[in-house]
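REQUEST FORM: STRUCTURE PREDICTION
Request ID: SP-0412
Submitted by: Lab K.M.
Chain count: 1
Length (residues): 139
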Amino acid sequence: MIRNLPLIVLGAVALAACNTQPENIVAGETPDPMATELANAAPIELPPAIAATKTYRCKDNSLVHIDWLAENKGANLRVGEDAALTQLRPAAPAAEGGNEVAPAAEGFTADGGYALKGDAEAATVTLTLPGKGAQSCKA
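STATUS: Completed
RESULT:
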């Protein structure tokens, strides 16, 4: 007990040195320099969620992985296991001034000659790849 006495005294001195008065922090009214820009900014639209992910076997015996995006806003396509992702968008443009998306019957396309017809619920889709003709692919 006597060995711990210096530690207890040191702790008591440290606590006695603390300020027991409450601190009041007063923030100034600093205006936000971007307040008007943020107030007038257009609303942010999040990217579409993935509604379904399916793997298809095509007529040429290749595997195709498709991530169908929600609200028919597109699809993400991977041909083969380690292939790069290709983003397909609705083939028909949305109506002017509206947020409407083209129906899936119009299909999805991407630069380079990619085309996809079908939807997440269909058991068979039609896929056109660059340098190849249209082919049927089954889930």
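NOTES: The longest strand covers residues 50-58.
Reviewed by: T.R.
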